[in-house]
Each structure stands twice: as C-alpha cells, then as structure tokens.
Specification:
This protein is α/β, with parallel strands linked by helices and 450 residues long. The protein has 14 helices and 15 strands. The structure holds pyridoxal-5'-phosphate.
C-alpha cells in the first residue's frame, strides 16, 4: 500500500465542528435528504476536500458525479466571477443574452446526430426530464412512456413516474403521471432470467417484445423510450454492447429515443455522452450534473423537428439558463477540451479498472466490477457464489473509507461507485484506491471469518 500523503484525518469523525453542523442540519433541513456519512465541507479544490475540523479527503464522489472539472477549477471560478460582475440574472424566458447562444451552438455540435438540434434549459436533472416528457408527448400526441426498472430520472412528479430504483423514492407520492411502463434493464450480472451473455442472444429483448409489446403496450401509442446508457442510481449497470442498437426497432414505430445523460454525460465515460459507447444516436438527450461544474443548469437537447412542435409559452423556467451558470458551462467545456478530460477519463479509468479487477480476484466480497471511463461500479456481495447482496458490507466499506480519508459513496443497494473528478491525478487515484482496498480487505476478512 502506498503511504497516505494526501488524505489526512486527524480527528474522530465527525469532529467537533462537524458534529455541531450535522445536529443543526437535522433540526432545520428536510429529513427527506439521506446522507452517507457526516462530512461537513469547508473547502474543496480539484479532488481534495477539507472539512470544518481540518481533515483532508480524496474525492471519489465528485458531488455525485457533478464535478467533472474538479472543485473550484480556476477557469470556472474566473468565468463565474466575470459574469457575476456583468449581470447575474435576466431570465431567458423573456430576454436575450449572447453567452446562451455560444453554449447552445457548442451543445448542438457536441451531441451526436447530423441533424439540426435545439436546446431547452432548466436548472436540474429532473427538470430536463420533465421537459423531455412534455416535449415528446406534445410531439407524438401519444400518451405512453417506456422506462426501465432500476432507472433513476429524478424525483419530481413527472420524472418520478419514470424512476424505479427504490420504493422509498415513490412512497407517499403515488399516483404519479399515468402510463409510464417499466421493463427490466439488461443487468447481466443479475440476469432476471438467469441467462448468460452472449449465449442468451439478448433474450431480455425477446421477453420485452413478448410480454410487453405483444401483451399490453400498444407501440403506436408510445411517445418515448427513456433510458440511461449506463444505469447510475440503479447500481452502475452497463448493458451489453448491442442492446440499444437492437432496441432501435421501436423507432420505426415512431417511438422517440430519450437518452438520459445526466450522470453519464460530460465526458464521464471517456466519451462526451455515455451513449456514444453504444453506437446509437438518440432523438433527445438530457444533460445536467457536470454541465456547469456544480452550478445549477440542465439542458434538454432535441432534434429541431421535435423541439419545434412547441409553441411559445408551452414550457419555460424563470431561472433556466442562468447567465452565470451558462458562463460556467462554457468554461467547463473549454477545460474539458484544453485539459483533454475525455482522454483522462479513459486513461485513469483503465488503471482503476485494472486495480479493481485485481481486487475482484482477491476478495470474496467483490462480486462484480464494471466501468466505462471514470464511471465505475464495484458490486459488493456476501458470497461470489450466491451473489447475496452485501448492502451492510458496502456501507461499512464506504464508512471505513471516510475514516481513512476517502469520499466514496454507493449506488443502488450494494454497489460502490467510483466517480472522481476527471481532473484527478494518478497519485490521487492511486492513494484513493489504496484506501478503498484497505477497507475492502478489512470487511472481506470479517465476512470470510463469519
Ligand atoms: C440519470 C439521472 N437522471 C436524473 C437525475 C436527477 O437529477 P437532479 O437530482 O439534478 O434532479 C439524476 C440524479 O442523480 C440522474 O443520475
């Protein structure tokens, strides 16, 4: 194991100052927010985070896959300051400003597809999804949405109708938007039909056709198919390579393909969009999280023919396309280019995968390791053979990491996600992986002994 040079934890956690903030937060802030452990941030730069008690952590969570350019990148900070000194808000619902045109021009060329595209802006991922839902229903004049079980598309009432990753997210909010139909995602490690890829020959698609399209979903009434190219909150699940291409048969029936790139986009997987790893060009793409390096901004990028079905007034948001967030997004794109962040995601991702696959060989509790670029999931199990989910064990590992100076979080029930900033150095990555391995080894020996 390398010596721990960057991570420095010198107090019990939470420290005194952190404990005070946690207890006041519990008093004043909605209990619907669920946190992993008591980190109270004081400052953060790049991939290093300081808490209020002076401890320093390596960041493998990146503000939940948001901080692609790292925390407080100087070029992003400079852009925010520059724009804040000019004007902070003017509402694109009623007025014009130029940086919005600059960003839109870049986004429509970065999003794949050699057709004309247009952009709708909101403030959050859920808003981008809401916009895509309204837009595709309006365009197709059809009522049904298709989405996957395990999907996460947000928690507002519309987006929540498509979300199906944990019952708690819907609890108390049902009924939702009607006619959202969910079907299984190709989660090969836990194939619902106990098949093995590639021998299965995409049985999941046959099942979808037989049990859904031939039984109760009239395809000519489906407005859109919403999907994450790699499921995020569902547990970092990577579909087999041809899955989305084979699903394209639905497009001939007029189903609009909406690709949710809120977590996978902005270079995370080593390509600008996650779907570029699968050779399919969607009709609509939703972006948020990393788009403005942490400022609230989201984009729904659609083919112009779809977007032009909207008439003035049909959809808008006062704070959408906030000019400071737009300037931060322009700086984010500039940093991605000048610092070759897609290449970094691929390179660092490859070294991380190598280490993690070695851990899979070594430790009983590492059931599966799957990743694209710096979007990596490590699924923790109680036994490789039974694949019993190691929910408690995954929690113990991330809590141990926190105490060891690494911020890692889970996705789904028992997967540890590794999503550091794309600006992370090899040294930071290696030290973070050392801390993670220490914790995996410790929990592994307890499980094996039990
Ligand atoms: C794939 C995906 N879609 C949508 C959302 C919702 O985004 P927000 O929390 O900004 O509303 C998330 C958030 O985690 C996400 O990962």
């Amino acid at each position: 194991m390398g010596s721990k040079k960057l991570a420095k934890v010198n107090t019990p956690l939470p420290g005194k100052r952190a404990a005070a903030v946690v207890s006041k937060t519990q008093k004043y802030v909605s209990p619907s927010i669920s946190r992993f452990y008591p980190l109270v941030v004081e400052s953060a730069h790049g991939s290093l985070v300081r808490d209020v008690d002076g401890n320093q952590f390596i960041d493998f969570a990146a503000g939940i896959a948001v901080l692609a350019t790292g925390s407080t990148h100087p070029k992003v900070v400079e852009a925010i300051e520059r724009q804040a000194n000019k004007f902070i808000h003017f509402s694109y619902t009623d007025f014009y400003y130029k940086n919005l045109v600059d960003l839109s021009e870049q986004l429509v060329s970065l999003v794949p597809g050699s057709f004309e595209k247009m952009v709708y802006y909101g403030n959050s991922g859920a808003e981008a999804i809401e916009a895509a839902m309204k837009l595709t229903r309006n365009y197709t004049k059809r009522p049904i949405f298709l989405a996957h079980s395990g999907a996460f598309h947000g928690r507002t009432m519309g987006a929540l109708s498509l979300t199906a990753s944990k019952p708690i997210q819907r609890k108390g909010s049902i009924p939702l938007v009607p006619d959202a139909v969910h079907f299984p995602f190709p989660y090969c490690y836990r194939c619902p039909w106990k098949q093995t890829f590639p021998e299965c020959d995409y049985y999941c698609i046959d099942y979808f056709k037989e049990q859904y399209l031939e039984k109760f979903v009239p395809i000519d009434e489906v407005a859109a198919y919403f999907f994450e190219p790699v499921q995020g909150e569902g547990g970092y699940v990577i579909p087999p390579p041809d899955y989305f291409r084979r699903m394209e048969f639905m497009r001939k029936e007029g189903v609009v393909f909406v690709c949710d790139e809120i977590q996978t986009g902005m270079g995370r997987t080593g390509k600008f969009l996650g779907i570029e790893n699968f050779g399919v060009v969607p009709d609509v793409v939703t972006l948020a999280k990393g788009i403005a390096s942490g400022l609230p901004l989201s984009a729904t990028v659609a083919s112009a023919s779809i977007m032009k079905s909207w008439k003035p007034g049909q959809h808008a948001s006062t704070f959408g396309a906030n000019p400071v967030a737009v300037e931060a997004a322009l700086a984010t794109l500039e940093v991605m280019k000048s610092e070759h962040l897609l290449e970094s995601a691929r390179k660092l991702g490859a070294t991380a995968m190598k280490r993690l696959l070695e851990m899979k060989e070594k430790y009983e509790i590492v059931g599966d390791v799957r990743g694209k670029g710096l979007f990596i999931g490590v699924e923790i199990v109680r036994s490789k053979k039974t694949k019993e989910r190691g929910e408690k064990e995954a929690k113990e590992i991330i809590n141990g990491c926190f105490k060891g100076g690494l911020l890692a979080i889970t996705a789904g029930r028992n997967t540890i996600r590794i999503v550091p900033p794309l600006t992370t150095t090899q040294e930071e990555l290696d030290e973070g992986l050392d801390i993670l391995e220490d914790q995996i080894a410790a929990v592994n020996s307890m499980v094996v002994r039990a």
